[in-house]
Amino acid sequence: MKVTKATPLLVVDDIAPALPFWQALGYEVTAEVPGFVILADGARELMLQTRASIGEDLGVTPACAMYLDVDDHQAAAKACNPQRVLIADRTTPYGAREAWVLDPAGNLVGFASH
Asked: How far apart are the C-alpha atoms of 52 and 71, rounded to whole Å?
């Protein structure tokens, strides 16, 4: 398993007040669904997702999360010996195949293959 990209997923109460901060640093919204946005500045990327959206989607409300692009999302989720598998396999509206787990410390980690 190889990680090809790591993107921070920042957990927020509300996306709208957070956007001007990141836009002032050169980030632009590249994808948006209710409760979630992807921001990019060239090759740099970050994601904002509301606590409510994560709670509804994954059943947890973490302080922070990491989103990792990998060659095989299911193999990565199994190989890391997670504390708990939240979602073993799904396809998102933006075309990513994902698995979501909690690491041994309880941090949220998403694995995606495209």
From this structure: 29
Distances from the Cα of 101 to the Cα of 37, 47, 59, 87, angstroms: 20, 17, 11, 7
Encode pLDDT of 4-16 as tens digits.
999 999 999 999 9
Q: Are 76 and 88 in contact (CB under 8 A)?
A: no
State the virtual CA torsion across 8, 13, 15, 16 in degrees, nearest 10: -150
- Is 57 in contact with 47 (CB distance < 8 Å)? no
Measured between its terminal Cα atoms, the distance across the chain in Å is 14
Q: What is the pLDDT of residues 101-110, one digit of tens each?
A: 998 878 899 9
For the whole model, what pTM was predicted? 0.86
What is the homologous superfamily of the domain 3-113 according to CATH? 2,3-Dihydroxybiphenyl 1,2-Dioxygenase, domain 1 (3.10.180.10)
CA proximity to 62, closest of 70, 72, 53, 71: 53
